[in-house]
Amino acid sequence: MADRLQPWGCRIIASVGTPRPLPSHVEPSALAPLLRNADFVVVLASLNSETRGLLGAQELSSMKVIVVFVNVARSRIVDEQTLAELALARPQARLALEFFERPPLAADHPLRRAPNAILTPHIIGHTRETLDRSPIVLPEEIRRAMQGTPPAYIRNPEVLHGWIARWGQNSVVSPSG
């Protein structure tokens, strides 16, 4: 994301839980000052024991009143009820959310009353072509997995070694589980 924003000349600040090198155009920051000072907050974290509940009432209420808050990470990282309350109390804020604690979002959920929130299902990135090919590709991928053969389409090849060690030819999954 930082690379895609670089041509726009944005100042990009990141808070990362697992120390790692950041691109030269990204400034590292602790989470608290990032939340207090950012005009845009984009949550991209994986859900795990360290990130579950990471953005609770204290963290969310520390954000600017006019913040743009985007969550494309798992919902349980963010306190959904507090976020809904903030969205309704701070009409200048803008929210874009793609994950919910209990999808689909209930018809009476307070986020649905927030005129400053864009709520999308997690499938927003799927294209018609992807949906059309799924019935063709999915059965083949299931067959491959059941035989301990790696998937044909791998987005993160760095995990392939671990996948093979766990699920590869020597540890074939039986249909009964």
Descriptive notes:
This protein is an alpha/beta fold and 177 residues long. It has 2 domains: 2-125, NAD(P)-binding Rossmann-like Domain (Rossmann fold, 3-Layer(aba) Sandwich); 128-171, no CATH class. It is 30% helix and 12% strand. The protein is built from 6 helices and 6 strands; from the N terminus they run H-E-E-H-E-H-E-H-E-E-H-H. The protein has helices at residues 2-5, 31-37, 57-61, 80-89, 128-146, 160-167; strands at residues 12-14, 26-28, 40-43, 68-71, 94-97, 117-119. A 4-stranded parallel β-sheet has the order 3-4-5-6, with no helix packed on it. Strands 1-2 form a two-stranded parallel sheet. The radius of gyration is 20 Å and the shape is globular. The protein starts with a helix and ends in a 10-residue tail after the last helix.
Amino- and carboxy-terminal Cα gap: 38 Å
Q: State the fourth-level CATH superfamily of the largest domain.
A: NAD(P)-binding Rossmann-like Domain
Q: Output the radius of gyration.
A: 20 Å
Spans where pLDDT lies below 50 across 5 or more residues: 172-177
Strand order of the largest sheet: 3-4-5-6
Mean of all residue-level pLDDT scores:
88
- List the helices and strands in order: HEEHEHEHEEHH
Amount of beta strand:
5-15%
CATH class membership of the largest domain:
Alpha Beta
Q: Helicity, in percent?
A: 25-40%
What is the CATH topology classification name of the largest domain? Rossmann fold
- CATH architecture of the largest domain, please? 3-Layer(aba) Sandwich
Q: What does the overall shape look like?
A: globular
Structural class, please? alpha/beta
Please work out how many helical segments DSSP would assign. 6
Q: Could you describe the largest sheet, including whether it forms a barrel?
A: 4 strands, parallel
Domain tally: 2
How many strand units?
A: 6
